[in-house]
Amino acid sequence: MPTYNAAFDAFEYNDKVEKTVPYYNEFFKQIIDIVDVLEFKDIDWLDIGCGTGKMAEAAYNYFNINEFAFCDVSEEMLNITRERFKNKNNRFFLMSAEEIEFCDKYDIVTSIMVNHYFNKTVRERVILNCYKALKKGGVLFSFENFAPNTGFGKSMQLKRWKKYQINNGKSENEAESHINRYGVNYYPITISSQLDILKKCGFNKYETIWISGMQAGFMGIK
């Protein structure tokens, strides 16, 4: 099974990610708001790289979910989600986004802080898999780290990101270690390059829906 080098394990994830990624919880609010505006009903939802189930928690709080599918490469993450949502209509898939082979099945596909772990070639294949998994009119939401357009922008934003982590309780060494993952353990691309991939994969409409620091949100409609 293909894997990616995630920053945190299942049992520390929720605590660590909020100290590391600015506005992390805002990602889910943005998705919920747009799904609400688009007026989806009885939703079939696939969450790739589901982690501990924060996307599912938000979705179940706001919408009538017909089926929620959890997909992750971590068996520990899936065990957590099974326990959290054991009384819901769910499916669980221990697999990478590279391996999904659904066709015209889901209204919504979400991928939160996942795609930047893939190089450009694999990223295109993953996004194409997401496109195929969607029903006509379905929506892909992706939030991830992105690459600034210039060297100056990269340097400035990485310094801001390091400062954020230190201000939220990390040591300087911990913050520096995470910053040094850029281009080594994950592979951000520019916002324009991300939109180009959505277009190339066949999405009828595609937009940047949120930007802050070095994180951005995107959507594509099949």
Tell me the span between the first and last alpha carbons.
28 Å
Mean pLDDT: 92
CATH homologous superfamily classification: Vaccinia Virus protein VP39
Provide the domain count: 1
Specify the CATH architecture. Answer: 3-Layer(aba) Sandwich
How many helices?
Answer: 8
Order of strands across the biggest sheet?
3-2-1-4-5-7-6
**What is the C-alpha radius of gyration, as a whole number of Å?**
17 Å
CATH class assignment: Alpha Beta
Query: How large a portion of the residues is in β-strands, by DSSP E?
Result: 15-25%
Indicate the low-confidence ranges by residue numbers: 7-11
**Which structural class is indicated by helix and strand composition?**
alpha/beta
How helix-rich are the residues, as a percent range? 40-55%
The helix/strand series, from N terminus to C terminus, equals HHEHEHEEHEHHHEE
- Principal-axis shape: globular
GO molecular function, one term: methyltransferase activity
Pfam family, one: Methyltransf_25
Keywords: Methyltransferase, S-adenosyl-L-methionine, Transferase
InterPro entries: Methyltransf_25, SAM-dependent_MTases_sf
